Amino acid sequence: MLAKYLAAGSRQNSPQEPRHSSRTRKEKKIPHRRAASNAGSPAVTRPSLDTGRIVTLETELISQEQNFKNEHKRTSSNDRKYTHSASAKSLGSFSDIETFKKEQEEQSKKEKILHSLLNSIKSGNLIPTNTNFYLIGKQLGKGAFGKVYLGLHRLTGLKVAIKTIDKSIIQDDRTRRKVFQEVYVMKKINHQNVIRLLEVFESPKHLMIVLEYSGGGDLLKLVKTRGSLTELEGKHIFSQLIEAIQACHTKNIIHRDVKLDNILITTDFTCIKLCDFGVSRSVKPGEKIYDQCGTPAYLAPEIIADRGYDPFYVDIWSMGVLLYAILTGTVPFRAKTLPELHKLILRCKYDMPDCLSLNAQDLIRRMLNPVPYMRISLEEMKIHPWFIDDENGFIEDSIIPRFAGGFMCSYRKTSEKEILMRMKGLGFPCEFVYQSLKFREINHVTATYYLLEISNMI
Ligand code: ATP
Ligand code: MG
């Protein structure tokens, strides 16, 4: 039910967008999200998801593996008898057999999924996605409402990230609205620098949000292991962040939690992707909002002042904090207690390291302007001298291989025709795919389409 409600496209009656809570307890108490005294951010108490379907699934996977092992034990003891026989040799090593068996099993699962999908399309009622459509693997991370797992989309064999939310946690209206808000917002954005929502489905105990997978870690990890980045590296990353935020703002969406940990790097290190729309929301231009949420070290002074704020400017402030953090390895506002931190932010008191170029210093100052409407706009950022004047050279000693080539994002979307051909190859009727896309429905067919589109594999 939940997933159906969230995934509804415009063909059906679109559900009312949830009104954003005026101010939740969680939002009111800013430290609840994350308090930061450095570039990192201490974790908050999170609800546990240690029971339920995921565990069952993992157990299933483990038991499947165990079955394989038992099977092989049997096979190997039998095989041992024939070790020297030519027939045993022709079977190859046991690991080959194991791999072969796993592949066979996966193939038959894939065929079953395809069969049931195609049959349901024929009968005019597409079956809802279930956990069998994905192979769930290791845990990638832990969020405020649940865990994020690596998943394998069985039909294409492509990797996804699956955010699982325990349904028992979203019983109350406020939390439910927050989770729904995240899905609604992500549904609206389709941009190469923003993690793509693929589909939403549910198991008996969990709501599952399937997302584009970005396997290169996040900027927080990068800055922690690597230290501050060079200005040239910073430019490559930051220019993409500008695009990501612009994609949100043009759809009247504010992110409100721009920070190092919410910027993921793609597996091939060619792109950055904005993620975690947990506190984002749609706004009307000119609307004043009062919600207090975000991560303390990245909070704009007008949020702390608590007299209402013009929404779009708060993301620009957080971008200023983020650029400072990338280039210096630490956040500009640091204090032992939250009231002290608030004081520093309200006074806009921070040190600007001399080692930064004058252009970088200027750009940061323009973003960290205490007067919201005086802050530099996204369009102005793009033509700021930091991007324009400085040489765009080769970073010889970059630890990040692709950054060394001066990449701007090598992302190429696969063409619609190519994907439709591939979908047709799988057996999906083109008309059905076309109609689902047209009405922006979210189901396993459109998820497959979007995954092929972003995977660049065709
Ligand atoms: P919080 O609000 O506490 O930051 P959250 O519930 O909103 O958490 P996310 O930040 O979206 O959850 O995800 C938690 C972690 O899971 C991330 O920090 C990241 O390590 C991992 N993760 C999330 N989405 C992806 C993805 N698409 N690809 C790879 N890893 C991901
Ligand atoms: Mg996060």
Automatic annotation (TrEMBL):
InterPro entries: Aur-like, Kinase-like_dom_sf, Prot_kinase_dom, Protein_kinase_ATP_BS, Ser/Thr_kinase_AS. One of its GO terms (molecular function) is protein serine/threonine kinase activity. Pfam families: Pkinase. Residues 1-51, 65-88 are annotated as: Disordered. Signal peptide: none annotated. PROSITE patterns: PROTEIN_KINASE_ATP, PROTEIN_KINASE_DOM, PROTEIN_KINASE_ST. Residues 21-35 have a biased composition (Basic residues). Residues 134-387 form the Protein kinase domain. The active site is at D257 (proton acceptor). Belongs to the protein kinase superfamily. This is Protein kinase domain-containing protein.
